Amino acid sequence: MHPMTNIAIRAARDGGRVLTRYFDRVGSLKIETKQQNDYVSEVDRTSEAAIIKTIKRYYPEHAILAEESGLHEGSEFEWIIDPLDGTTNYLHGFPQFSVSIALRHRGELLSAVVYDPMREELFHATKGEGAFINDRRMRVSPRKGLDGSLLGTGIPYRDMTHADAYFGMMRDLIVDSAGVRRPGSAALDFAWLAMGRIDGFWELGLAPWDIAGGALLIKEAGGIITDLSGGSRYLETGNVVAANMKLHKVMLDTIKPHMSASLKE
Ligand code: IPD
Ligand code: CA
Ligand code: CA
């Protein structure tokens, strides 16, 4: 395995240990509101500090972009970190959340780890070397159309700018598929897509740390992830559609009629 992926795994396990340690006393955590429906707790911060400490021990000169502490400038290697993806779930004791870590170099994702500490499932990928769950190779599902497909999504709950467009897409995707799930941790949704638990996924308005790790998992598992126009600007726009190549096209075609002018990036 690539040494940098190895360090990402070590760091993700350090963050995950913090998440499991606090999980049975969520009721007594200190919680702050960043904006409407956007919370941060001491767990997010403690997990992030543990992850950054491990990365800095091995790669002190690398840059870091972490959700809670922002940009730490450094070399052309940049670690993109979500120390707790699924904070709303976590704070309700709903056991669906993850740690996401990706390494980017000159715009290319090189390593990715998404870790689910509740199920002890660790997903990792290195560019060109495939994607794995707990060291078993994973592939996206082969389902070709919406018929029979299980889709994942994130329903808007903070920023309602594109809510009408989103609910139009959702309606059309629901009627033609086997159903839609909203598990609540985008990074884990991507990992589950990479291993075929869900066939397709779409969401609007994500942040880079929600997407970066999962994007490499999907690509290395043989899938496709794009923005809503089918292009590669998903880390910038935050809008994503992901699936295998055939289903991805069907999803984009279903989504397209609902693209308001402001969504056409
Ligand atoms: C959130 C989760 C959620 C997605 C939100 C994200 P957070 O991340 O990934 O599934 O729908 O858009 O912000 O805030 O829990 O790290
Ligand atoms: Ca997140
Ligand atoms: Ca987070």
General description of the model:
With 265 residues, this protein is of the alpha+beta class. It has 2 domains: 3-137, Fructose-1,6-Bisphosphatase, Chain A, domain 1, CATH 3.30.540; 150-264, D-Maltodextrin-Binding Protein, domain 2. Helix content is 35%, strand content 27%. The protein has helices at residues 3-23, 42-58, 87-91, 163-176, 186-194, 208-220, 234-237, 245-255; strands at 31-35, 38-41, 63-66, 70-72, 77-85, 98-105, 108-116, 121-126, 131-133, 136-137, 150-153, 179-181, 200-203, 224-226, 240-243. A hairpin with a 2-residue loop joins strand 1 (31-35) and strand 2 (38-41). Helix 1 runs antiparallel to helix 2 and helix 5 (186-194) runs parallel beside helix 6 (208-220). The longest helix is centred in the N-terminal third of the chain and has 21 residues, at 3-23. It is globular. The structure holds D-MYO-inositol-1-phosphate (IPD) and calcium ion (2 copies).
Observed structural traits:
single chain; 265 residues; alpha+beta; Fructose-1,6-Bisphosphatase, Chain A, domain 1; D-Maltodextrin-Binding Protein, domain 2; 2 domains; 8-stranded mixed sheet; 5-stranded mixed sheet; 27% strand; binds D-MYO-inositol-1-phosphate; binds calcium ion
